[in-house]
Amino acid sequence: MLLNYNPPTSPYIDVVYHDNDILILNKPSGLLTVPGKAPEHKDSLINRVNRVFPTATIVHRLDMATSGIICLALNKAAHREISRQFQFRETKKCYIARLYGKLEQESGSVELPLICDWPNRPKQMVDFENGKHALTHWQVLEHEVVEDKALEQKSHVTRVELTPITGRSHQLRVHMKELGHVILGDRLYAHDDAKAMAERLQLHAKWLAFTHPTTKEWVSFTQEPKF
Known about the structure:
Layout lengths: L14 E4 L3 E6 L17 H8 L4 E2 L8 E7 L2 H12 L4 E9 L6 E5 L2 E3 L7 E3 L8 E14 L4 E12 L6 H9 L12 H5 L6 E9 L6 E5 L5
Parallel strand pairs: 4-11
Antiparallel strand pairs: 1-2, 2-4, 3-4, 5-10, 5-11, 6-9, 7-8, 9-10, 11-12
């Protein structure tokens, strides 16, 4: 359930690249990829885009709170081909996140199966019996020491690059939580201190690469995070 849904409107849509087949956007944090069921949740990335690109369709999604690179298809053939690449994990992508605390190792992986936490949906949880396979690689980029206003003290923060091998719902958010370092500003999974340290979820889809559906060339798109 969304409370006080007030997505940003400037820019209304942020186009990174487009041609006759694909549309690459930089989605802001706070905007739904597709509309919710309630009338007040109609404003969404796809509804905005369709006013300018009527044939555009969603190929994959980003969580409402996640910002960054997202790909839409502009015709049925492109949609089929890019969807196939996502289905068979032929696409490549990476995210940037800021985590609560200091990771002692420089890199690692989290491989924990995930399933919907049905009584608490849309939250996901680890379930070794019924969960779907999920794998995330992570790499430390930077260690920070920041002022934690809630605790009135300095706290450690780690900036990481996350590479999801699978694409489960909330995968990066849950895997980082299970690693012991929640993403700052995560309203679903973070503890109060980590929530208070950021006004938005500090998770951004920085890079996406795939084979262009028409030219068959390997294409990649990058957008740096604003945090």
